Each structure stands twice: as structure tokens, then as C-alpha cells.
Amino acid sequence: MQKQRLFVYGSLRSGFRNPAYNYLTKYFHLIGEGVTKGRMYFNGETPVAVPTEDEHYLSGELYELNNEAEFDWAINQLDDYEGLNVMPGEWPKYKREKVLVFRNGSEKEAWIYWYNGSVNGLPEIEMGDVLKYLLELNKHHKVG
């Protein structure tokens, strides 16, 4: 049976200590940092990412499911958190797809949540790493 993995690039990364991170780590364990092809933008509230075919990468964390029998339950809870399970007439904010994650010279397949809206007009986070982006932003907005 193929191992189920999850790649996170935004609010579910360990550095954010989002309440949903506790849920994530209940079912998944951190393998380590990795990258996947994609472009990151800031929608005014959170980082969002969309797939790309060019050589532009997102930095994030790769997790692996602890118990394969719990995949359906665990991923459904994360789908709820990411806004995939919507009421009739509503549009899901994200979509879950498989990607290749590159880590230490190897490739691993993992699930990712891509933004399901338009990124037109949104500022791009060129470095592809939301933690570094927020650190840079804070450096320039320090009160003196």
C-alpha cells in the first residue's frame, strides 16, 4: 500500500502553530522540509499557491500519515479546514491534488491544497516561502 503524505506551505506549517496544526500532528508526522513546483501569492489574509510547470518552487513541510487506516477520516477533517466541503451554491477555496515533493535528492508523492480562486492582481511571494516572506515583512515594519 502506498504511503499517504501531505505537503503544507502555509498556515499548517509548524512555525505558525495554527490550532489545526495540533490536529495535523495527531494523524501525520513530519518527515522534513521540501519543495514542489508552484507559485505563491498573498490574498490579504493568508498565503495561497497555484501549480506551475515552470521552474518555480514552493517551500514547505512534508508529512506522512501515521496510520493508513485513518486516511479517509484524517484527510476529510483537513478538507473541512481548507474549505473543500462547502454548502450547495458555495465555491471551495481550495482543491486537493497530488504533487511531487523534492526532498534531499528524492521525490515523494504527496497531497497539497492548491488555491481554487483567481490570483490575478494578488502580490506574488517570489521566494515561495511564507515564513521567510513574513520575516522580511516584519523587518520593514518595525516600530522605531
Per-chain topology:
Blueprint: E1 5-8, H1 19-27, E2 28-37, E3 39-42, E4 47-50, E5 57-65, H2 71-81, E6 94-103, E7 106-115, H3 130-140
Antiparallel strand pairs: 1-5, 2-5, 3-4, 6-7
Based on helices, strands and strand pairing, what is the structural class?
alpha+beta
Reading side by side through the largest sheet, how are the strands ordered?
1-5-2
Overall spatial form: globular
- How many β strands by DSSP? 7
What's the helical proportion of residues? 10-25%
Radius of gyration: 15 Å
Q: SSE order in H/E notation?
A: EHEEEEHEEH
Report on the biggest sheet: 3 strands, antiparallel
Return residue spans where pLDDT drops below 50 for at least 5 consecutive residues. none
In percent, how much strand structure appears in the residues? 35-45%
* pLDDT averaged over residues: 89
End-to-end gap: 56 Å
Number of helices: 3
